[in-house]
Specification:
The complex is a heterodimer.
Chain A: E1 9-12, E2 18-23, E3 35-40, E4 47-50, E5 64-69, E6 72-77, E7 86-93, E8 100-102, E9 106-110
Chain B: E1 3-7, E2 10-13, E3 18-25, E4 34-39, E5 45-51, E6 58-60, E7 68-73, E8 78-83, E9 92-99, E10 112-115, E11 119-124
Parallel strand pairs in B: 2-11
Antiparallel strand pairs in B: 1-3, 3-8, 4-5, 4-9, 5-6, 7-8, 9-10, 9-11
Chain lengths: ~110, ~120
């Protein structure tokens, strides 16, 4: 069982907006602003999409945005495209036993 | 451009050891923390370990603490992961990844900006 909880799957049609949640505790997501989001296509390495809750690295599309409320962080993808079909992971710094924790991942299907 | 290349993976018997390497290029290696992250077949990502830019700080996931050791050689721009007492549960693709910010300033350690292609470790029983 992963430390952070994500929905196993979400889906949407091209052009739509979808949101993926990532729920933790006050020791990780709720207590620190070090939540990151990654996209991973099959057989490929993950790619950083969002860092520090809501910041986008250079080169990442502004269709991706991040936010946080309490112990839950969210990744929003607008204008859904076929290339967005992938697995998405959240991660957070943790002040509990282990330094960093990942979510279990969410499979996004573009219908 | 930033490049991270893992090597050292392979098939190893349960109880044995293996050392992975992560060779870096394209950036000032000695100013960045490096992580190891693994992914079991068909499963999600699991954080394994981090080493600070100068090697003075190391942290591990509970699942590998006491069995795995992370180290680095800044003169060779390489990070290592020594894995001992391997079990079938350690079977995974192991990725090395760079912490986003230099010297971990502003929490820059805690997001992983660049990743290698991964190396597969298979532990046979």
């Amino acid at each position: 069982q992963s430390a952070l909880t994500q929905p196993a799957s979400v889906s949407g049609s091209p052009g739509q907006l979808i949101t993926i949640s990532c729920t933790g505790t006050s020791s990780d997501v709720g207590g620190h602003n070090y939540v990151s989001w990654y996209r991973q296509h099959p057989g490929k390495a993950p790619k950083l999409l969002i860092y520090d809750v809501s910041n986008r690295p250079s080169g990442v599309s502004n269709r991706f945005s991040g936010s946080k409320s309490g112990n839950t962080a969210s990744l929003t993808i607008s204008g859904l495209q076929a290339e967005d079909e992938a697995d998405y992971y959240c991660t957070s710094y943790s002040s509990s036993v282990t330094l960093m924790v990942f979510g279990g991942g969410t499979k996004l299907t573009v219908l | 451009q930033v490049q991270l290349v893992e090597s050292g993976g392979g098939v190893v018997q349960s109880g044995n050891s293996l050392r992975l390497s992560c060779a870096a290029s394209g950036f000032t290696f000695k100013t960045y923390a490096i992580h190891w992250v693994r992914q079991a077949p068909g499963k999600g990502l699991e954080w394994v370990a981090i080493i600070s830019f100068d090697g003075s700080h190391k942290y591990y996931a509970d699942s590998v603490k006491g069995r795995f050791t992370i180290s680095r050689d800044n003169s060779m721009s390489t990070v290592y992961l020594q894995m001992n007492s391997l079990t079938a549960d350690d079977t995974a693709v192991f990725y090395c990844a760079r912490g986003r910010g230099e010297f971990c300033a502003g929490g820059g350690c805690y997001s992983l900006s660049d990743w290698g292609q991964g190396t597969l470790v298979t532990v046979s029983s």
